[in-house]
Amino acid sequence: MLPSTPDRLTVLIADDNVSDRMLLSAIVSRQGHDVLTASNGAEAVSLFERRRPQLVLMDAMMPVMDGFEAARQIKALAGDALVPIIFLTSLTEGEDLARCLDAGGDDFVAKPYNQLVLAAKINAMNRLRVLQETVLHQRDLITRHHKYLLNEQRVAKALFDQIAHSGCLSSTNIRYLQSPYALFNGDLLLAAWSPSGNMHLLLGDFTGHGLPAAVGAMPLAEVFYGMTAKGYGLRETLREMNAKLKRILPVDMFCCAALLSLNFKQQLVEVWNGGLPDGYLLHGDGRPHTPLISSNVPLGVLSAGSFDDNTQVYPFGPGDRVFLLSDGVVDSTGQDGELFGARRLQNVLVSNRNPALLIEEVQWALARFNGQARDDVSMVEVAFTEPDLLGPPSVIYTDSGDCSPLDWSASFEYRAVTLKRFNPLPYLLQLLQEVHGLRSQSGELYIVLSELYSNALEHGVLGLDSALKRDAEGFGLYYQQRGERLDTLEDGFIRIDFNIVPAGDGGRLTVRVQDSGAGFDSDRVLAMPPATNQLSGRGLSLVRQLSDRCQWSDDGRTASVEFAWEGLA
Amino acid sequence: MSNNPVDYNVLSTLREVMETEYPLLVEVFMDDSVTRINEMVQLLDNPSFSTSSAASLENLGLMAHSFKGSTGNMGATHLSELCLQLEEQGRGIVATDEARIRLLVSQIEAEFTAVRDIFERELQLCHAGH
Amino acid sequence: MSVTSERSADGQQLTITISGRFDFSTHQDFRGAYEKETQAKRIVVDLKDTSYLDSSALGMLLLLRDHAGGDKSDVQLTNCNNDVRKILEISNFSKLFNIAKPA
């Protein structure tokens, strides 16, 4: 009894000899298969095309078209699918047998036919056929899924781009490199103007790949853009971003990030780095670069109570640049598994002569090192630029303008405990923007308010001496003292009064800012020449420049400024 | 002539495989064989046949090859062996010798006669219900 | 890459040892090592045979810390080689885990 085969196949038998054909048909039928017969190669090919059998038994020598040519044509017709062809041959020379296999034959069986051998070979070939079928099926499934995934990513990216469009990455003082797949590697680069003309910049690296990494980017971008536009500082923005990510991301997901607040008017940069490799502050005067070290836990890990929003502040003036990078750069591995590392990167920084080529030079160094570009390499370089050359975009409002409050006053008093952690400026600016006439000056308003507030806080309440900010070392000391004194503050206040009155078709805003400090000689400070190398004292001239009228009370503890506007068209 | 023109083990396997179609197989084989042998004889009798003609030698070789196959499958072992020798002549695997070729063809004719006798007896046995 | 775990005699400490690359493929095994643990007050992760940590490994450590009580947890990372130490340093994980000094 012949062993029965599990599948019922359709087998094509091509043999020019009638009795051989009969015999073979009987043998194969008894194994449980359906049989098609052809008496020459051409018939075999045509029958194959019409009926698509799963397996072919092919005689080598046939008239009209021999088995070799028929095998070639059938294999071509079969395409990706495996249709096993077993040659039937009484050829014995090795060369002839090799010819069978070269023509596309998968095996051969000798005449006279041994039905056991034939059965075994048919079963073996069938196993291979089924295997190939499975592989093709899985390949098609994978291709289909891949298309869905790509489409989902397209949608996610389109959504994200809607949020990201409000940024200022195209600003002329920013150069950057990001792969088109950056979003799906979790790499994020955002830049935006604050109302006071500062530039906030974020380079982020979410854990994971694909959509999970990309999806975290959207709420983060919303917070970043929203708060920056309202005038919040880096620290508040950081606290909010951390809280948001902590809330929405699963425990094992987080975002390594570096944030910058570049103040071109005061020539300083504020930096926070949590989990990214060292960034670098590149000095235009030939001093060695200053590393911007990661001293914080990445965003989304710590609860609000434990989150450290402390930033470092450095002088940042003409010729200076900040360079940030994601870990794809330093983690690139070379041929022998060695890492590119910070030292090689620093070599590139040191030997760079043309600043415009820095990012390219890093890329070349990476390519030389490992020859294989990674798609998660992100780099950004921001250069100092004169404030007049750049500008925040105009703010867009959505209300109709009919309900503008035109005759009112308000007073606020912020005392010690509040001064430690709360920045009142965004709220106050929002309030003033209810007055439509003031909107076109909101940039100037914000700058002036920020100036007066920070003078009141730092010089008035905290008693800091801005003469310290003469050099880089003094800078560090000044901000250290600021932090210490703010932490230990127990008494003190800042009062802010607004008074809005109509004037002709327009109106006038008077702002008074009063602090509890020792006061200062405003006349003396204003009389000082606006030396471009001095890091202090510029604030007051700026205030005078931007407002319509400003004056200080005799003891210097109260500043009063005015803004006026004409009637709107 | 050989002692045993047809291998009885092969026959019994054929009977088992073909079942009711066994007589048909035998008849088909015999008719086909007669045709093939006539073809071979006619090829040799044709005045244009010459051992220096590559085409006629190749033709002869193919005929012998094919007949070798079917006779082998039917258990006519000695007949199949003769066909192999003729094939070797036709395909130039051995040195071509016209006298040898003609001898082989007449040996094939003779051996087939013996084989045919045996198969005719087989048919009679089948029709008698064995 | 393999994960093994051992409880101290008094049941107060669970030591999880990782060898090989600590990456995403370790996920299941690592989790299995501490998931059912309720008694141990302190968990020690021994990284002496760990050649490499990636960001998903950092994520797994965070999951462990969360399971062990979050801010109230006592999780120690020991026997970190230089590469592992450097990675932990950049993410400032010393603020979350007790990282043992090199021997």
From TrEMBL, chain B:
InterPro entries tied to this protein: HPT_dom_sf (IPR036641), Sig_transdc_His_kin_Hpt_dom (IPR008207)
Entry-linked CDD domains: HPT
Keywords per UniProt: Phosphoprotein, Two-component regulatory system
Domain HPt: 18-126
This protein's record includes keyword Magnesium: no
GO molecular function ontology, one term from the record: protein kinase activity
Biological process according to GO: phosphorelay signal transduction system
Modified sites of kind Phosphohistidine: 65
Protein's recorded name: HPt domain-containing protein
Species of provenance: Pseudomonas lutea
TrEMBL record, chain C:
Residue intervals of the STAS domain: 14-103
Pfam family of the protein (one): STAS_2
InterPro entries: MlaB-like_STAS, STAS_dom, STAS_dom_sf
Domain of life: Bacteria
GO molecular function, one term: anti-sigma factor antagonist activity
PROSITE patterns xrefs: STAS
Name assigned to this protein: STAS domain-containing protein
Annotated source species: Pseudomonas lutea
